[in-house]
Design a protein that fits this description.
With 103 residues, the chain is of the alpha/beta class. It has a single domain, classed as STAS domain (Transcription Regulator spoIIAA). Helix content is 44%, strand content 29%. The chain has 4 helices and 4 strands, in the order ββααβαβα. Strands 1-2-3-4 form a 4-stranded mixed beta sheet. Helix 1 packs parallel to helix 3 (57-68) and helix 3 (57-68) packs across helix 4 (78-92). The longest helix is centred in the last third of the chain and has 15 residues, at 78-92. It is globular, with a radius of gyration of 13 Å.
């Protein structure tokens, strides 16, 4: 199970994730991400992974796409910090990824 809370502030928008980013919950996060295209154009966007307990390979792939499109990934603790480090290093090293078209 994954809980996705959208926090909209004057200067930023954050998805706060709680639980497991796996299976059908990956597609749900993707739907939420695509539906926020207008908000993302207005101000900075972040995904808070601090309360995530597990991320499967599809979840990691989606987080890479989201990060590549400009979102900041926020982590705390060993698990999420390790995942964010892996994602940001792979994107910085020039790994090419297919983006979401945001329709």
């Amino acid at each position: 199970m994954l809980k996705i809370t959208t926090l909209i502030h004057t200067e930023s928008t954050t998805f706060r994730l709680e639980g497991r980013l796996a299976g059908p919950w990956v597609q749900e996060l993707e739907r939420c991400w695509v539906s926020t295209v207008d908000m993302r154009k207005k101000h900075p966007f972040s995904v808070d992974l601090s309360a995530v307990t597990y991320v499967d390979s599809e979840g990691k792939d989606l987080l890479k796409k989201i990060h590549q499109q400009g979102a900041t990934l926020v982590a705390s603790g060993c698990l999420t910090s390790s995942i964010v480090k892996e994602i940001t290093q792979s994107v910085r090293s020039g790994e090419r990824m297919k983006g979401l078209d945001g329709c």
